[in-house]
Structure prediction request, 414 residues.
Amino acid sequence: MERPVQLYAWHFMSYPFLPPDFDEKYELGWITVPNKLWDPEKSRGLLREYIDQLVEADALGFDGMVTNEHHQNIYGLMPAPNIIAAALAHSTRRGKIVVLGNLLPLHGNPLRVAEEYAMLDNMSDGRIVAGFAPRGGQETFNYNTPAALQREQFWEAVDLITDAWTKPGPFAFEGRHYPMRYVNPWPQPTQRPHPPVWVPGSRSRETMQQVARRGFSYFLSSRVHGSEIAKGRLAFTKVLEENGQKYQPFRMGILLSVYVAETDEQAQEEAREPIFYFIKFCFKGHLRQEGRSLTQGPAVPNMAPEDYRQYLQHSTPGQPMLGDVNDWNELKNAQSIILGSPDTVFKALKEMVEVSGVGNLLIQFHIGNMKNELARKSMRLFAEHVAPRLRAETSTILKRNFPEMERELREAPV
Prediction:
């Protein structure tokens, strides 16, 4: 049996109404960006418009819709992605609803997350993919949470949630951070033994190890692709083998941004303003050298010592990041934002799947301050002229490159 690459529509729901002089007047788009810039009149119906774009993605035949969690910023207006997921559960009928993911150390008692995901799984008739994010960088500042404890808190919270879904209750959970006398959530998830769990990471070996041990799927949280995807996949493959497992393409996914128009020239013309709005304004304070960076969070970095050593060894102060690109050639070399005609986009994504061996593509269609009609047009052109060819070609590619994939999928844990 052949399985094609899985295509998901990811929405960040960025704020599209910043003034043209934002870059000159404000040092970053995260945490301290003054909320006086929020225009309540222009923003009427904005979140509904964004939700409707994801609903259209479901109608167009995408395999799922993806939301995520960010706080106090212009990059993503979803501090409570489970609320968006609830709206999608009611308004869609077929695609998976992926929350990638809840930032567990920021949520207080993790049992509440277990309960919300279980409700969403029932409301959607078993279509929820439960995402858990181990670190939030800037979000540590947002909620004033101690970075040094976050990873330990995170994995304890994950275990409490999965136990709540799989162990008969009531039972006691003897955790260091979340001791519970009674764990007995109602309702239970529709999917058994529990919804699929996806965990994003930035090539942290410790995250990969924990994901492998629990049988979860890993998503490379990076906006610079090319050889980096293959490096991430090889690292995850090695970790899986150390844990007695084999890599198969649907244990891993990547994030990328795509804009499709009728021609390459039209794509560049239509996407220029929203793309540079996104990378210059929304990345300021995160993936740009310009402005104050808050990515690491305060105090001790919330990563394993081995990963922090690797980070220091491979980081170069002042090295350009995605938000520092100034022209189309630099943007093309980063391979994070793919734009062009259906044929151009198809060829780029086919090559990406063939080189990387990754089976889940999480695609951002709405970018920056892109107009509603352009985002919808791009999704429609992709669904009609890129997706059918990509599914057909990648079915063959993945079967050829991973001949044991079907057996591994049958034997794989959730």
User: Anything to note?
Assistant: The chain has a mean pLDDT of 90. The longest helix spans residues 372-401.
